[in-house]
Amino acid sequence: MIHDLMITNGLVILENGGKYVDIAVDNGVITQLGRQFSARKVIDAKGLIVSPGMVDAHVHLTGMGGGLRDNFEGYQTGTSAGAKGGVTTLIEMPMNQLPATINGRTLLQKYNAGQNNLKVDVASLGGIVPGSLNGEIQEMNCQGVCGYFIATCGHRCMKADFTNSDDHTLLEAMKQVKKTGKVLTIHAENEAITQMLAERSEASGQLSMADFVASRPVFAEVEEIRRVLSMAKETGGRISITHVSSAEGVAEITKAKADGIDVTCEVCVHYLYFSKEEADKIGSLLKCAPPIREKGQQTGLWQRLRDGEIDYVASDHSTCPSRLKAVKNVFQAWGGVAGLQNDVDIMFDEAVQKRKMPLKQFARLIASNPADRFGLSKKGRISIGKDADFVLIKPNTSYILKADQLEYRNKISPYVGRSIGAQVTRTILRGHTVYSEQGGVTAPFQGQFIKKLVQSQHRNWTFKSLCDKRDTIFGQSKQ
């Protein structure tokens, strides 16, 4: 048999570890693992690591600018950055774009905005805000979201478009999302505490990054995580705590798992890379919530990562025009770290090369675990029947990241100027090269939206017929 594509001579990360094996690909799917296949196209990966393409489970893009955000990260630039960085699938958050994705109508708007504009595959989370418990969760389920997102404590730096939720909304959201069988992801910080501390800091003229970090203390994260976990225990829903920034927060989630709660823990690459001690020097490019923590917290996160207590890493990529970062009062700066393009190379360097993490654990953290958690059944592994999504990594090859190398619309990132000890040389999506070191990001838009319908037998139903069926599916009346 002559295959469409063969990748040969690389150290391939399989589920049981690295192995020198050739990969055969046909019609965008992995069809054989072995040696010496015949293929129409051959990619020689000698000296390279062949990893599953990253599934970044936490990315903010702005498909619709709504006037206010026309200059934010769009689908073309955001997914191009993913391609260049080895991310073959990203899960898009429901805020940043205007309007926010909080019902079936706004989700459809986003799908339309992204059509023919994707360099990599994109799955979507539906947003839940106060007042969106009257059928909106079911509408978005009908349209194929892979999960949901709710915030107990977000930023307050621009006109609100995605509102923080109260305890009642959170509890009811858990109950409704449970009926979909999907995951509710949660930003867990105690808003009453962080808002009060922020107001006091601003009023007293304490406006630095260190002051911002102090306004969002570890105990505000831990206290809210405990409350969220108690609700999850009560409802039995599936949840994931996003961007956990403290070792204590991870410990609470670990205890909850032992108690039978269906919860996963996400940690962002920037918490593992940067520390509070350098925050003032870097400035508002590092502003995020929860904030960058002390070096001791970073050390604790690495230990819990090695021990398997953290399920997956993500970028929480959220970039903006530089003017929204260049303000004297850091509390008024846009909150978010631009990191999507450097998920893979930094994690490979920091985890595998510097800390000797096994290759199979690296692949689980960046690909297998997030794919499994959000039900992306064709993604996350190099095995027969999975999508042929790969990132080829050149180990022990340092480069200094420059702003003009970024694919972002706004070429700012706290990683600029840093020496990174590994390089992404090629990204392959369903058998198609979408980035190569020689050719850059390719011109065709090979990416697709991944839509998870309610049940497999419904795959041929239209959106209208799906939503007409929700009486039966969800056991409640239509709104």
Q: How would you characterize this protein structure?
A:
This protein is of the alpha/beta class. The protein is 31% helix and 22% strand. The chain has 15 helices and 22 strands. Helix 4 packs across helix 7 and helix 7 (218-235) runs parallel beside helix 8. It is globular. The N and C termini lie far apart (55 Å). The relative contact order is 0.17.
Rg over alpha carbons: 21 Å
- Are there runs of 5+ residues with pLDDT below 50, and where? 456-479
Estimate the mean pLDDT confidence: 92
What structural class do the secondary elements suggest?
A: alpha/beta
Query: How far apart, in Å, are the first and last alpha carbons?
Result: 55 Å
What is the makeup of the main sheet?
A: 9 strands, parallel
Helix tally equals 15
Query: What shape does the CA trace take?
Result: globular
**Beta-strand level of the residues, as a percent range?**
15-25%
Helix coverage percent: 25-40%
Oligomer: single chain
Number of DSSP-assigned strands: 22
What can be said about this structure in brief?
The chain is α/β, with parallel strands linked by helices and 479 residues long.
Please specify the SSE layout and strand pairing.
Blueprint: E1 2-8, E2 11-14, E3 17-20, E4 22-26, E5 29-34, E6 38-44, E7 49-52, E8 54-59, H1 75-85, E9 87-92, H2 104-114, E10 121-127, H3 136-142, E11 147-151, H4 167-180, E12 183-187, H5 191-203, H6 209-214, H7 218-235, E13 239-241, H8 247-258, E14 263-268, H9 269-273, H10 279-282, H11 295-306, E15 312-314, H12 343-353, H13 359-373, E16 390-394, E17 399-400, E18 419-420, E19 423-429, E20 432-436, E21 440-441, E22 449-450, H14 463-468, H15 470-474
Parallel strand pairs: 1-6, 2-7, 8-9, 9-10, 10-11, 10-22, 11-12, 12-13, 13-14, 14-15
Antiparallel strand pairs: 1-4, 2-3, 4-5, 7-16, 16-19, 17-18, 19-20, 20-21
Helix pairs in contact: 4-7, 7-8
